Amino acid sequence: MKLSILDQAPISEGQSAKEALEASCQLAQVGDEYGFNRFWVAEHHALPSLASSTPEVFLGYVGAQTKRIRIGSGATLLPYYKPYKVAENFNMLATLFEGRVDLGIGRAPGGPSEASEALTDAFLPQVFKMPELVDELIQYNENITGLPPANPLPGTPPALWMLGTSPKSAGFAAENGLSYCFGQFMSDEDGAEVVKQYRKKFQPRGGQDRPHAMLGISVVCADTSEEAHDIADSWAVWQLMQSEGTTAKVPSSETAHIYMETAEVPKKVEAAKQKMIIGDPADVVDELERLQNTTGVDEFMIITITHSPEDKWKSYQLISEQAANR
């Protein structure tokens, strides 16, 4: 079972953005040590509780402090940028960290409309041009003759991925011969069916001769199931706060439980936790194996958000150790 890490560099209550980024880098080092396949960082804008606004910059820092693990964006939001510049950024990373770089692309805004307007005057027109943008990026990635080279040209180009939360994105990835990561943690779609359609429609292109599907899922693991659920409460409360329009940082367990004293909040928290995998190592890996059998995915991209960085690092460590013993 291949396991990977997605991090958004969330900022916890009592933590600075710098501390959040340092904790995210330490998570990459944990992944490096415990055999995780990839470490991806998300792109978000104008969200005070997330420090991951520029993956292409942060990945240079992460790559220099890790040895083996693949590093990548999950995702670079292509409508904001010219494909040529994206290709240059990731070719630079792939030159420095050859054979270790992934370029995940998506089309979501990644933040409020004000941020989109600040980044570009034409976000929606660019979203509609996504097929052309992706095709252009692929050509730069393949160093097609007749186009300006996106220097520096690495010995091994970045591996291209499409990220999405719908059958449409899966179909788009398949038609373009791209690896695909389905964000189950952000979608109510049937992941098994989406992955099935991706495999069915896959068209080989360039060096990608077979489909590769990954499932993005929310997981919290601890020594006991009770402890894992207690840790997950703060994540669920934070999601609820965000849905209500607050800009709160990831709350401590104490803050979360005070918040849960409000009527109806416990029910909403439990509903949010139903979309996560929460438990002790054996229970979590059992569920991952069940999901793999159901969906047929090649790999899992795990996202874990906790108030304490140590709880997050331990969650990944426990999952890796349990999976290795199967």
Automatic annotation (TrEMBL):
The keyword Oxidoreductase appears for this protein: yes
Enzyme Commission number: 1.-.-.-
SUPFAM superfamilies per the UniProt record, alphabetical: Bacterial luciferase-like
Top EC class of this enzyme: oxidoreductase
Domain Luciferase-like: 1-294
GO MF assignments: oxidoreductase activity
Superkingdom as given in the UniProt entry: Bacteria
Keywords: Oxidoreductase
Protein family (similarity comment): To bacterial alkanal monooxygenase alpha and beta chains.
UniProt xrefs under NCBIfam families: oxido_grp_1
Record's protein name: LLM class flavin-dependent oxidoreductase
Organism: Salinicoccus siamensis
Taxonomic lineage: Bacteria, Bacillati, Bacillota, Bacilli, Bacillales
